[in-house]
User: What shape does this take?
Amino acid sequence: MNFRCLLFLVISWTSFAQQMDFPTAEAAAIVNRIQLPVFPSYQVNVLKLGAKGDSVTNNKAFFDKAMALCKKNNGGTIIVPKGIYKVNGPIHFVSNVNLKIERGAKIKFSDNPKDYLPMVLTSWEGTMLYNYSPLIYAYECSNIALTGEGTIDGEGGTTWKSFKAKENEGKIRSREMNHNSVPLNDRKFGEGYFLRPQLIQFFNCKNILVENIRIENSPFWCLHLLKSESITIRGISYKSLNYNNDGIDPEYAKDVLIENVNFDNGDDNVAIKAGRDHEGRANSATPSENIVIRNCNFKGLHGVVLGSEMSAGIQNVYVENCKTVGYLKRGIYIKTNADRGGFIKNIFVNNLQLDEVEDCLYITANYHGEGSGFQSDISNVYFSNITCNKATESGIVIQGFPEKKIRNISLSNIEIKSAKNALSNENAENVLMTDVFIGQRATVPSAAK
Assistant: This one.
């Protein structure tokens, strides 16, 4: 190795090693540039349009009319007072609208798939396609909000739940279309393919606020932030335990704040994604980036997940001051495989309190052992000030490939009080461990023979 290469390696390693403290200023800069939506003074109350919160009347037409009136008035606030409002079909946003669901109010969607036709442009597990409309759908909107202390109920536990056992044909077809670059207009799903819609999806939107609402009983992913930016999610809560009920899925998303959220959902709490395979790699100019997650209570399958659909890349993620309040399988889970490509880099996790989990911190480049030819690049991941009472399986897992090693992993002030397997570190380089304790802490060595 010549002197210039050696000097570069020394400088790179020194720079990595010095990045031990959580970069508070960088996270704050992201939060400071996120813009909250601003709305005109116009207001419309759905009751005054004829809606009935009696849990029986179909109020679809009244919500559509409210959106149309807001559009006519260049935006405004739609007020949903106390009551249970049955809505047989999707609510489609227009720009400059705040849908305010007041305390004691619930929007309860139908579970008849035909109500969510005609199909709309959407995404399903990382592949763009046409499918049933998400139940709340905003496409190419700006300055939009879901607020109030009411509830959105996706009625996902019966008809939609039954789709899970029948989705495989549609899932395989969508992935084949992705890999074969089938034109978007030919990717038609809907009836006969059993791909469940998301409860809430913001697609190509900007300046979004979701605040204080409660999400229940989603058919599929709960809150999907697709190709959107300048997003604030705060103070919301969950009780959504159906199949694949991810809490929040930023995908190709930029400048996102997620804070003070109480999760209780049937899959990942936050799952950061960025497209799948060939299609994702073709969108490498729009990775998911600049995401701050703080002061959240985790309960569900996994706390924060990066992947596995992340082919356009994920970077600049900041997780701080979060804890578990119930069951969690894994705390932080970074997962990709050799089908994905792309990168995961500049990930910072600080002050995480976990109770009992299966695995505490898990990084794998070989998720499900799938794929070949497109190994992902994982680098610059920083864990600091993390406690865990018990890991029933593994404390810390790092799994790269011999020819594509995971690089630059920092673990500082980590204490896992009990673990079946302490540490598995495979095909990784520049793993720096400072004050890491797994199991009982060692004390002064015994002098007895």
